[in-house]
Write a structure and sequence with these properties.
The structure holds two protein chains of two kinds.
Chain A (H helix, E strand, L loop, with lengths): L13 E2 L10 H12 L11 H21 L7 E4 L2 H16 L5 E4 L9 H10 L2 E4 L10 H7 L4 E7 L11 H11 L2 E5 L18 E5 L10 E5 L1 H5 L11 E4 L5 E3 L13 H17 L1 H19 L5 E3 L8 E6 L4 H10 L2 E2 L1 E3 L7 H4 L4 E5 L6 H12 L4 H5 L1
Parallel strand pairs in A: 1-13, 3-4, 3-5, 5-6, 6-7
Antiparallel strand pairs in A: 2-8, 7-8, 9-10, 11-12, 12-15, 14-15
Chain B lengths: L2 H13 L13 E6 L6 E9 L2 E10 L2 H14 L4 H15 L6 H4 L15 H18 L3
Antiparallel strand pairs in B: 1-2, 2-3
The chains are: A alpha/beta, B alpha+beta.
Chain lengths: 398, 142
C-alpha cells in the first residue's frame, strides 16, 4: 500500500530490510526540508517567527507520540538519538541509581545487543545478576516461562516486544500485568513493534518503552524513551549541558529542569523530531492494525510459497510478524544476500546483533526478510522466483 | 583467465576447502579474523619453524570468496619462508589494488584478479592475507 509515496520504490528494487531501517515517504522528507529551508532555528530560545514555528512543531511532536503510544502525558515523552540511547538512559540513569548487588534482571537470548550489553555493563559496575528466560521450541517467549523465571529477587524484566530475528510477538499485556502485581519494573524494547502494530503504553503497564524513528518511516538520529512520569522524575540524566538546567553557580550548586527536558541536554535533533512527527501522523492515518494485518498476511503468503522450494530452511514460519529468517541449504547467508542483490532484492544476512541466539537455534547466521506496509505480493513473487533458480547461485556470486 | 575456470577453482576451494579444522597444538600461532563490514568470522593457526611455514589450518563461517581464498592462500604459503610469504601477500594486495604485481609468484591466487570490480567483496578476498599478516607480525614481535 501507498507505494507511490516512497521515491526509492521508483527504482525497481524490492526492499526487504525494514528491520534494519525503513524507506522514507515524501511527506517526511518534505517536513524536514521545510525546516532546513523555511524555518531553521533552535528551539526554546528564540522570539522570532521561524523559531516560534519550530518550537510549536517540536512540542506538538511530543503530543503526537503521546497519542500514538497512549501514555499519560507528553511529559513522559523524551526524545533520544534512538532505541540504543533510550535503553542506555534507562539502565544508567534509572537502574544504576535504584538497583543493588544481587538484584535480578530477566532478559532473553533473542534480545538485540542494545538490550543486553548495557545490562552486562551495569552488572560489572554494581553486581546485578542477569538471568535469561528460556525460549520455547519455536524460539519464542511464553508467559508461562516468564512466570517460572520470576524469583523474589527479580526487580526488572527487559524484553523486546517483537524480536528482530525470530519476530515473535511477546504478550506484553500479560507480562505487564504480572510485573504490576509483583512490583517488577517492565522495560519494553519497541524497536521492532512500535513501527508495525498498535502498542499501548498504559494498557500494557509498561514502565519504560524505547523505540527508534528510522525504523518507522522517520529519519535516522532520533528515537523515543517513554517512561512513567514518577519514574522519570526519579531518573538521572546521563548527559548534562544547555537546555536541561534551571541554574548553576560557581559554588557548584545547580538544579535541573523536570522531565522530559532534563534528559535532552544540548540542541536536540530538531529536524529529525519534526520528521518523526510527520512519520507517526502518516502511520496513524493508515492505521497500525491495518499495517500489522498486511504484514502478517504477506508473510503467510511468503512462507506458503517458500515451502514449495525444497532447499530452503525457515526458522520462524509461525511468528506473527513480517519477519522471516531462512537459509538456502549449504549456502552461507551472505552469499545468498549477495545473490539476491544481483536481482535488486535487498535483504540482510548475519546474526542481526542477536549474538546469543546461536545458543538456541544452533545456527549463527541467517538471511532475514523483514516487511513493511509498502511491500506487496509482487515483491514476494520476485523473491520466490529468484530463490527457485538458486542452484545457479555461484554463477552469480563468484 | 577464463571465467568458467576461475569460478570452478573458487567453488572447488569453497566447497572442499583444504586444511580446514583447527589443531590442539600450542606450537601454533592462533588468530581470529572477522571483518567489520561483513559477517565472515575465521580462526587461523600457523606453525613456523626456523623461519619456514610448516603448516596453516583454519575454521569458521565465511562466504564463498573468503573461504576459498583462505584455502588457496594456505596451500600457496605452506613450505615457504616467512619473507617469501610476505612477498606473496604484498603482490596479492597489489593485484587487488590493480597495481603491478608478479603473476607467476601468485599462482592460483590470480583467480581473484577481478575481485576489485566488486568493491563489497574486497574485504572477503583480503581476509586470509590480513589474518596471516597479523600472525607474522605477532611472530616478529611487532
Amino acid at each position: 500500500m501507498h507505494r507511490e509515496d516512497f521515491p526509492m520504490l521508483n527504482s525497481d528494487i524490492v526492499y526487504f530490510d525494514n528491520g534494519a531501517t525503513t524507506l522514507k515517504p515524501n511527506c517526511v522528507v518534505r517536513s524536514m526540508v521545510d525546516y532546513y529551508t523555511k524555518h531553521t532555528s533552535n528551539i526554546h530560545r528564540g522570539d522570532y517567527d521561524a523559531a516560534i514555528t519550530t518550537n510549536k512543531l517540536y512540542d506538538e511532536a511530543r503530543e503526537v507520540v503521546r497519542d500514538f503510544i497512549n501514555c499519560n502525558s507528553s511529559k513522559e515523552v523524551v526524545f533520544t538519538s534512538g532505541t540504543t540511547a533510550s535503553i542506555n538512559m534507562v539502565v544508567f540513569g534509572y537502574m544504576k541509581k535504584h538497583l543493588k548487588r544481587g538484584d535480578e534482571i530477566l532478559l532473553t537470548k533473542s534480545e538485540h545487543a542494545s538490550n543486553v550489553l548495557p545490562w552486562i555493563k551495569l552488572s560489572e559496575e554494581i553486581g546485578i545478576v542477569i538471568k535469561y528466560i528460556p525460549l520455547n521450541e519455536e524460539f519464542a517467549l511464553t508467559v508461562d516461562n516468564v512466570i517460572k523465571s520470576i524469583h523474589s529477587n527479580t526487580k526488572v524484566i527487559s524484553i523486546a516486544h517483537v524480536t528482530n530475528v525470530i519476530g515473535d510477538v511477546r504478550n506484553i499485556e500479560a507480562i505487564g500485568q504480572i510485573c504490576k502485581e509483583k512490583g517488577i519494573l517492565f522495560h519494553v524494547d519497541g524497536a521492532q513493534s512500535v513501527p508495525h502494530m498498535k502498542v499501548d503504553f498504559r494498557k500494557c503497564n509498561i514502565d519504560f518503552l524505547s523505540f527508534s524513528g528510522h525504523k518507522m518511516l522517520g529519519p535516522t538520529g532520533v528515537g523515543v524513551l517513554v517512561g512513567k512520569y514518577n519514574l522519570l522524575e526519579d531518573m538521572d540524566p546521563i548527559f548534562f549541558g544547555g537546555g536541561m538546567n534551571q541554574f548553576f553557580e560557581a559554588d557548584n550548586r545547580y538544579e535541573f529542569k523536570n522531565s522530559p527536558v532534563k534528559f535532552e541536554a544540548g540542541t536536540p535533533p530538531i529536524a529529525e523530531v519534526i520528521g518523526l512527527k510527520r512519520a507517526i501522523e502518516y502511520l496513524m492515518d493508515i492505521g497500525m492494525d491495518n499495517i500489522h494485518k498486511h504484514e502478517v498476511e504477506l508473510k503467510k503468503y511468503m512462507v506458503s510459497e517458500l515451502e514449495k522450494i525444497p532447499n530452503i530452511v525457515m526458522y520462524n514460519k509461525n511468528s506473527d510478524s513480517g519477519i522471516l529468517a531462512f537459509n538456502i541449504m549449504d549456502v552461507f547467508s551472505q552469499d545468498t544476500s549477495i545473490y539476491l542483490n544481483h536481482y535488486k532484492i535487498y535483504v540482510r544476512a548475519g546474526n542481526h546483533c542477536t549474538k546469543m541466539l546461536k545458543d538456541e537455534i544452533n545456527i549463527k547466521n541467517t538471511v532475514r526478510v523483514s516487511m513493511y506496509l509498502y511491500n506487496n505480493k509482487s515483491d514476494v513473487d520476485k523473491l520466490i522466483h529468484v530463490l527457485k533458480q538458486s542452484k545457479d547461485i555461484f554463477k552469480i556470486v563468484i | 583467465m577464463d571465467s568458467n575456470l576461475r569460478r570452478e577453482i573458487i567453488l572447488d576451494n569453497y566447497q572442499h576447502p583444504m586444511h580446514r579444522g583447527l589443531v590442539l597444538d600450542d606450537s601454533y600461532l592462533k588468530t581470529n579474523y572477522n571483518s567489520e563490514s561483513c559477517i565472515d568470522n575465521l580462526d587461523l593457526m600457523m606453525k613456523v619453524e626456523d623461519g619456514i611455514i610448516k603448516d596453516i589450518v583454519f575454521d569458521g563461517e565465511a562466504c564463498a570468496i573468503s573461504t576459498s581464498a583462505t584455502s588457496i592462500f594456505i596451500r600457496s604459503l605452506i613450505g615457504k619462508s616467512v619473507s617469501e610469504a610476505k612477498n606473496i601477500i604484498r603482490n596479492y594486495q597489489n593485484m587487488l589494488d590493480e597495481v603491478e604485481y608478479d603473476k607467476e609468484l601468485l599462482g592460483e591466487l590470480v583467480v581473484y584478479d577481478e575481485i576489485s570490480r566488486q568493491p563489497n567483496r574486497m574485504n572477503c578476498a583480503l581476509l586470509p592475507s590480513r589474518a596471516i599478516t597479523k600472525m607474522i607480525e605477532e611472530l616478529e614481535g611487532k
